[in-house]
Amino acid sequence: MREDTRRRLDRAIQMRRLKMAAAGLAACAVMAAMFAWISADSNVENVRVPATITSVGLTASKNVQNGLLVGVVLNDGKQVNVLVNQITDPKVGQKVEITEHRHATGRHTYSWK
User: How far apart are CA 87 and CA 28, in angstroms?
Assistant: First the structure.
């Protein structure tokens, strides 16, 4: 085999190895970022927020038995929906406190706890 042919073949093999290593490192970086995002979303700060009930309706889901979908307006004017058990018997205009869950990723969820 001639010297220049062997050099080109070695260079092609080395480039293929580098591409495979780069693809593996990129996949590891993406997975690490996903795990960091998931762990950040599991860090939650719970805050009780005063609100007023604006609407009470049935849930559209068959999986939620004895549940109501309650629309509330927070004191800052934000309107949110909360799932409630029918046992609590919410009424329109009633002042309540709901729990705001502030996730580390910036997501806000609400519950009737």
Answer: 48
- Structural domain harbouring 49: 44-111
Cβ atoms 109, 101 nearer than 8 A: yes
Tell which residue, 64, 81, 63, has the closest CA to residue 72.
Answer: 81
Residue 30, CB-side half-sphere exposure with 13 Å CA sphere: 6
Nearest Cα to 49, choosing from 95, 105, 3? Answer: 95
- What is the total count of domains within the chain? 2
Residue recorded with tokens 């805050």: 47
CA distance linking residue 70 with residue 53, whole number of Å: 7
Do 48 and 36 have their domain in common?
no
Question: pLDDT per residue over 6-22, tens digit each?
Answer: 999 999 999 999 999 99
| Together in a domain, 78 and 92 | yes
